[in-house]
Write a structure and sequence with these properties.
By secondary structure, the chain is α+β, with helices and mostly antiparallel strands. The chain has a single domain (4-127), classed as Sufe protein. Chain: A. It has six helices and three strands. The protein is globular and about 40 Å long. It starts with a helix and ends with a helix.
Length: 131
C-alpha cells in the first residue's frame, strides 16, 4: 500500500490534468486485483459510475481494505483513498475529514459529479461499515 505522504507529494507535484491522469493510472497498477470470488454483489459499492468493489476486514481493532474497479482511473483514486485509511481504527477513520484529505490530493479535476457520487459512496462505506 502506498503511504499517504509519498502519494500526496506525487499528486501535488502534478502540474496538469494529464500529469494527474498519468499518475493515477500508474498508481492503479499498485492496487492488487480482487479475485472473481471477491467481486460479489455484497462487496460492490452502490452509486459508482464504474464497478467498484470494497472489502473491509478488521484485525485486532485495525481496519484493512481491499478494493478493485473495472476503471483504471478509479483504481488510482482507490489507491489514494485507501492510503488515508489503511491500518487505522474505525474511531480514527470516523474522525477524519476524508473529503478534505482527498481535496488536498489534487483530484478535483477528475471527480466529475457522477464520479464524486461514487467516491462519496466509497467514503461512506469506509466510515460507516455494515455491522
Amino acid at each position: 500500500m502506498t503511504d499517504t505522504i509519498h502519494l500526496k507529494a506525487q499528486l501535488q507535484a502534478c502540474r496538469s490534468k494529464e500529469d494527474t491522469f498519468k499518475t493515477l493510472v500508474t498508481l492503479s497498477k499498485t492496487l492488487p486485483r480482487l479475485s472473481a470470488e471477491e467481486k460479489i454483489e455484497d462487496n460492490k459499492v452502490k452509486g459508482c459510475e464504474s464497478a467498484v468493489w470494497l472489502i473491509i476486514e478488521e484485525n485486532h481493532g485495525l481496519h484493512h481494505f481491499k478494493a478493485d474497479s473495472d476503471a483504471k482511473l478509479m483504481r488510482g483514486v482507490l489507491v489514494a483513498i485507501l492510503s488515508l485509511v489503511e491500518g487505522k481504527t474505525l474511531a480514527d477513520i470516523q474522525q477524519m475529514d476524508l473529503k478534505a484529505e482527498l481535496a488536498e490530493l489534487n483530484l478535483s479535476s477528475y471527480l466529475t459529479s457522477s464520479r464524486t457520487n461514487g467516491v462519496l459512496a466509497i467514503l461512506e462505506k469506509i466510515q460507516v461499515p455494515k455491522q
